[in-house]
């Protein structure tokens, strides 16, 4: 038996001020599959930031409700799809398969752009098992969490002695949101390019986690990390190390602060994405997040302002970890609609012991990170002889004791093209500028330590269009000293 529901209405610019709009409907007992499609007037074509028209995203919550942080999330496709389905054993990418509980469900609209009163229609069709209705079969109240949370226990190979740098990517998308590829196609690609770890962070959903868990269990050289990109109208953020779905409905500073605290309480990391892109981060008064994506996609894509923003926070005495993310949406065999793929840029993390999801995220939280333009580098390994004993054991991200006025010795190991500038920065600005004269270049020097300061390195040079100025080829997190 099939039950059909049609919901017609109008959304206005006034409705869009609340950002989310809910359309309740009844899920009958015995439901086995629900199919939804929708359409609305004057849909924007192309990027909504630059083109006229309306944009309405879509998702759904089940009978557990729509409460902020604790609602019964069952899926989100944003504006990537006009239809979806959910059944006991299958669902459209972006949606969670499982029981269809009897009770009030809600279609949720994300009103990202409404310029005028706009008519919409939602068509809902539910396949119902009449026998189940007759027998009043009890409906499950909980939906199983996809299995990628188990990846935290995965280890690849024997741990090296003394630790090493691992290369990976913290930000990418699949068909489970607005990406062009299956999870399997992306994982095969990152295997082939030699990434040691890879985080898939589809927008506002965790439906990709099952595919990650299955592929990790099947084996392969790359550690797969389950993540989610919190995609709001006022900024985006990545969350890694989750135990389940993370709400994305941060409509103001108070709610975004609650999102950050909720993620931290669950042992997850919260990292601001591409803060100066066409969808800039507008929550400058929230706190408690661990990292900021200073490098997103090719360097000239709004990254210079993000670097300046990060430097501003460092100079205020705020210890904040800089990471990179490719924000990749396509790999072959899909059509390449962006110039970079996974690992471009590449985020390198220093891990001692087995390579696990926890070890990678602990390294990021500690700031033991540098970012390069590609998996083949350049490499920047910055260290300090904090104890004055001739050993360089203090890495980027570490805090060491350095009395005011004392000189400390630093060592940088650079591996990359010769002729590039290696520039060292502290709170005062540029401290040192040297040119790498060889492809394997080591620079050792002393620096007088000012109170509560830091030192970080950028590798810069020309590429492609010299008339457009230098680009960053790699950058490190700081070594800190004093009161951080």
How would you describe this protein?
By secondary structure, this protein is mainly β. The chain folds into 3 domains: 2-131, Sandwich (Jelly Rolls), CATH 2.60.120; 144-310 and 319-376, TIM Barrel (Alpha-Beta Barrel), CATH 3.20.20.140; 378-484, Immunoglobulins (Immunoglobulin-like, Sandwich), CATH 2.60.40. Helix content is 14%, strand content 37%. The protein has a 15-stranded mixed sheet that branches. The chain has a 4-stranded antiparallel sheet with strand order 1-8-3-6. A 4-stranded antiparallel sheet has the order 2-7-4-5. The longest helix is centred in the middle third of the chain and has 13 residues, at 253-265. It is elongated, with a radius of gyration of 24 Å. The protein starts with a strand and ends with a strand. Mean pLDDT is 93; it is low at 148-157.
């Amino acid at each position: 038996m099939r039950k059909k529901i049609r919901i017609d209405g109008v959304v206005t610019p006034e409705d869009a001020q609340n950002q989310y709009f809910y359309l309740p409907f009844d899920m009958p007992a015995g439901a086995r599959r629900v199919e939804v499609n929708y359409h609305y007037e004057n849909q924007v074509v192309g990027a909504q930031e630059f083109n006229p028209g309306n944009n309405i995203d879509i998702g759904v919550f089940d009978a557990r409700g729509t409460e902020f942080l604790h609602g019964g999330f069952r899926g989100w496709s944003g504006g990537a799809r006009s239809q979806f389905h959910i059944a006991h054993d299958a669902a459209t990418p972006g949606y969670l398969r499982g029981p269809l509980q009897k009770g009030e469900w809600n279609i949720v609209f994300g009103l990202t752009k409404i310029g005028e009163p706009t008519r919409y229609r939602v068509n809902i069709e539910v396949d119902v098992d009449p026998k189940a209705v007759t027998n009043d079969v009890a409906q499950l109240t909980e939906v199983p969490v996809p299995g990628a949370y188990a990846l935290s226990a995965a280890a690849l190979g024997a741990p090296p002695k003394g630790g090493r740098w691992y290369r990976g990517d913290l930000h990418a998308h699949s068909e489970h949101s607005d990406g062009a590829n299956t999870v399997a196609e992306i994982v095969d690609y990152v295997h082939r390019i030699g990434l040691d770890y890879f985080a898939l962070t589809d927008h506002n959903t965790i439906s990709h986690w099952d595919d990650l868990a299955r592929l990790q269990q099947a084996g392969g050289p790359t550690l797969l990390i389950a993540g989610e990109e919190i995609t709001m109208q006022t900024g985006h953020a990545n969350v890694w190390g989750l135990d389940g779905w993370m709400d994305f409905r941060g409509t103001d500073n108070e709610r975004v602060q609650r999102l950050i605290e909720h993620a931290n309480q669950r042992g997850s990391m919260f990292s601001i994405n591409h803060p100066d892109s066409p969808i800039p981060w507008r929550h400058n008064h929230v706190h408690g997040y661990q990292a900021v994506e200073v490098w997103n996609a090719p360097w000239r894509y709004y990254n210079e302002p993000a670097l300046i923003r990060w430097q501003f926070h460092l100079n205020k005495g705020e210890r904040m970890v800089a990471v990179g993310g490719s924000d990749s949406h396509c790999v072959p065999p899909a059509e390449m609609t962006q110039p970079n793929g996974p690992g471009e840029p590449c985020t390198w993390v220093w891990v001692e012991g087995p390579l696990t999801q926890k070890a990678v995220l602990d390294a990021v939280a500690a700031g033991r990170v540098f970012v390069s333009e590609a998996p083949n580098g350049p490499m920047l390994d910055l260290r300090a002889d904090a104890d004055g004993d001739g050993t360089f054991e203090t890495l980027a991200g570490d805090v060491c004791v350095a009395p005011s006025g004392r000189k400390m010795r630093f060592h940088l190991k650079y591996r990359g093209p010769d002729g590039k500038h290696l520039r060292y920065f502290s709170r005062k600005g540029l401290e040192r500028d040297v040119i790498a004269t060889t492809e394997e270049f080591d620079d050792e020097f002393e620096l007088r330590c000012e109170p509560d300061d830091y030192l970080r390195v950028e590798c810069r040079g020309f590429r492609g269009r010299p008339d457009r100025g230098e680009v960053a080829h790699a950058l490190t997190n700081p070594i800190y000293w004093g009161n951080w």
